[in-house]
Amino acid sequence: MAQLFITREFRFEGAHALTGYDGKCRHIHGHSYKLLVTITGEPSEIPGHPKSGMIMDFNDLKNIVHQYVIDPLDHSLMLREEAPLSRELKEQYDNIKVFDFQPTCEQLTLYIAHILEPVISPPNRLHRVCLYETPTSFAEWIR
């Protein structure tokens, strides 16, 4: 049987600064992120089950991604732990995310995949995470 995939699109706002970067992105700035999450699996074939014919209910996927990714990251300031004032900002504001990695689009994509992979219920699996930082620039993780 051919592999089957479902994808749901999400959006969130976030700011970051790239510590030590040699361009404009070293300054605090924001993005309107677009996130695509793809699940692979086989449609349920349980007769009479409300989810029969589905790999996963799109609303269930929405709830998972919102709980683990969108709610924590939306309208956050994402900084590397070595960033100047990161500790002080975290103490003063509620939605400061301090990471042990540079919060580039690539690293955030890996971070999101790492968070979502264990919470997708087998036999379904996370297949792809695609994070757009701008309308024309994105990073992609594929199993």
CATH superfamily: 6-pyruvoyl tetrahydropterin synthase/QueD
Task: Report the structural category.
Answer: alpha/beta
- Average pLDDT rating: 94
Strand content of the residues, in percent? 35-45%
Number of strands: 6
CATH C-level label: Alpha Beta
Query: Any idea what the CATH architecture is?
Result: 2-Layer Sandwich
Spatial order of the strands in the main sheet?
A: 4-3-1-2-5-6
Largest sheet properties: 6 strands, mixed
Please indicate the count of domains: 1
Low-confidence stretches: none
Radius of gyration: 17 Å
General form: elongated
Helix content: 10-25%
- Quaternary assembly: single chain
The CATH topology annotation reads as Tetrahydropterin Synthase, Chain A
Distance between the termini: 19 Å
The number of distinct helices, counting runs of at least 4 residues, comes to 3
Order of helices and strands: EEHEHEHEE
SSE arrangement:
Blueprint: E1 4-16, E2 29-41, H1 58-73, E3 76-80, H2 86-92, E4 96-99, H3 105-116, E5 125-134, E6 137-142
Parallel strand pairs: 1-3, 3-4
Antiparallel strand pairs: 1-2, 2-5, 5-6
